[in-house]
Amino acid sequence: MNQDQENLERSLSILNKYLYDGYLIKLHFLSKHDVDGQKEAFDIDQLQNEYKDEINKWLNIVAGYLFKKFERYLYFHFIQLKTDAMSIKHPLGGLTYSLERHLFALEEVITRLEERRNLIVRQEIADREHQNDIIYKITYNDHTREVKLNNILLTKTDFNSENDNCFNFIYQNAGRPIVIEELEQVIGSKLKKRIAHIVRDLGFTKELKTIFFPVVTKSQIKFINPITKQYFYENDLPIINFKKLGDKVSQSKAE
User: Fold this and answer.
1) CA 253, CA 245: separation in Å to the nearest integer?
2) d(Cα 185, Cα 175) in Å, to the nearest integer?
3) How many CB atoms lie within 10 A of CB 226?
4) How many CA atoms lie less than 13 Å away from 148 in the CB half-sphere?
């Protein structure tokens, strides 16, 4: 569960508690009227004032929370009175009617936030499915300058070197052909080496070059990343021997 979803779950829990508290206020004062109304010296005005005060306290708490935590349209949706509550013929009916309209509005706010939460959950599931669909993936960190394949280090470029500058741009523009003139314009100089040699120096040799660089010519280059199952099978790509690759990387470090 990501941070946004955790925050939304927490807010929904708080708002549902506020909703429950609002209904308790309504039930408490209707019950109090039924019981105290039978007593001598019963003061309906005092009960109405108490009811109104509790409603206002509740409104301020809920409105304040919505104003602080969410978009303004949710706040205004709550404070604007709705007209779909059922009024009852009762000495406390006017106050109850007002409270009910806000309760209905809060229920609608909660429903909208639940839909947002469900959307986040569906997006997370889609992202996980997409990640599971990936067979090979190159990652590049321009801080450490490490080029990795499925978390296996292929190489580490020298800062501001031709290899470093070229791959930084190629990595950021995966999936489209890049002409050499564009690459040279970005790095600010003519290439000293052939682009095929740069690809080789970065560790993309044999099957790695076939998989990730379907186009490497004198005039252009194309980098594909990540490699999905669909792309892998459609292009009949070779299988990477990760054990052999790991041994090769270990041997290079030892040297």
Assistant:
1) 12
2) 19
3) 17
4) 11
Partnered with residue 13 across adjacent β-strands are none
Place of tokens 């990540």: 226
The first and second tokens of residue 227, run together, are: 């490699």
Structure tokens at 182: 């564009």
pLDDT at 246: 64
Contacts of 230-234 spanning 24+ positions with Cβ under 8 A: 230/133, 232/135, 232/136
> CA 157, 159, 161, 167: dihedral to nearest 10 degrees?
50
Cβ burial 184-209 (10 Å sphere, 16+ → b, else e) = eebbeeeeeeebeebbbbbbbeeebb
Task: Report the distance separating Cα 204 and Cα 56, nearest Å.
Answer: 68
Domains and CATH numbers, the chain: 3-131 (no CATH), 134-254 (1.10.10)
The residue ranking higher by pLDDT, 121 or 127, is 121
pLDDT digits (tens, 9 = 90+) for 4-25: 778 888 999 999 999 999 999 9
Cα dihedral value 118, 122, 123, 124, nearest 10:
100
Give tens-digit pLDDT for 152-205. 899 999 999 999 999 999 999 999 999 999 999 999 999 999 999 999 999 999
Q: How far apart are CA 138 and CA 150, in angstroms?
A: 6
CB 177 within 8 A of CB 215: yes
State the maximum Cα–Cα separation within the chain, in Å, rounded to a whole number: 102
